[in-house]
Amino acid sequence: MPPERVTRFAPSPTGPLHLGHAYSALIAAQRAGAGRFLLRIEDIDRARSRPAWEAQIFDDLHWLGLRWPIPVMRQSDRLPAYRAALDRLGAMGVLYPCRCSRADIRAALAAPQEGAAQHGPDGLIYPGNCRGRPVGEAGPDDALRLDLRAALALTGPLAFRELGPVHAGMHRPEPDRILAEVGDVVLARRDMGTSYHLAVVVDDAAQGITEVTRGADLFDATMIHVLLQVLLEISSPTYWHHDLIRDESGRRLAKRDDARAIAHYRAEGATPEDIRAMVGL
Length: 281
Ligand code: GLU
Hints:
36% of the residues are buried. A hairpin with a 6-residue loop joins strand 8 and strand 9. The protein is globular. It has helices at residues 19-32, 51-63, 79-91, 102-110, 148-155, 175-181, 196-206, 222-231, 262-267, 272-278, and strands spanning 6-9, 36-41, 73-74, 95-98, 119-120, 123-124, 143-146, 160-162, 169-171, 186-188, 211-215, 238-242. Helix content is 35%, strand content 15%. It has ten helices and twelve strands. It folds into two domains: 1-77 and 245-281, Rossmann fold, CATH 3.40.50.620; 78-206, HUPs (Rossmann fold). The chain starts with 5 loop residues before the first strand and ends with a helix. The protein is α/β, with parallel strands linked by helices. Bound molecules: glutamic acid.
C-alpha cells in the first residue's frame, strides 16, 4: 500500500484569510483525499502575528467545511527545533553571521562592478559582504545566512518532484542557477531565531507532510527547501504548487485586500459553496 498522503495549510496570522488562502486550504484538503489534512500556524513574525487573526482563520476554515486534527502546530512553540537545525548547519560550515541592512545590500549592489541587481525568492540576491565571518562570532545584531556555495558542495545535485498544474515534472535545478537565482538566503532573522525557509522545512518534516501544496509564488523557494532537506537528512515531500487567485486587474491578492476577505463575503451572506465557485473549485 502506498503511504498515507499528508498535506497541510500553513497560514500566517498577520491578516484576514482571503480568497487566495481559501483556495490554497481547499486544495490542500482535497489533495489529502483519504489521508490527513493538517493545519500549521506560521507565527514566527511575532511583531505582525495577532491572536485575533488566528481565531478568525480557524473560524473561516471551519465555516468553509474544513476539519483538522488538534492540537495545531504553532511555529512560535518550535524555536528549540529551529535552534537544533541551525546548530547542525553551523557545525557543517554552511552558515555565517550577517549584519547587513537592506540599505547596505542595495549600496553593495549599486557598486559599478556589479551587474544589474537580481531578485530571488527573498528579494535582492545577497552580494556576500559578510560571507566568511565565522559562525561563532554571531551576536544579537546578526542574522544567519546560508553559505550557498559551501552547501551545494556538500549536497551534490538536487532534485524534486512537482505534481501541480503549473510546473509539473521532475526538477533538477543546476547549482549555477541556484547560485544566480537564490543566493545566500537568511536562515535565522535577527529578531526571530529562524526564517520562513528553515521553519517550513523543519516543520514539514516534523509533521510528516508527504505533499506540500501552496501557491506558485513559492515555487522558486522550493530549491532552497530541497537543499535544506538534503543537508538536514530529511526526506523530501512532493510538491503541488497551484496558480494564484488574482483580482479583476490581474494583481495577486494581498493580506490587505480586505474586500476579498472571507469574513467580508460571509458578512454579505455568501455560502461556502459560493466561495468554492469563486475560486473555481
Ligand atoms: N505561511 C506561508 C504563507 O502564508 C505559507 C508557506 C507554505 O505553504 O510553505 O504564505
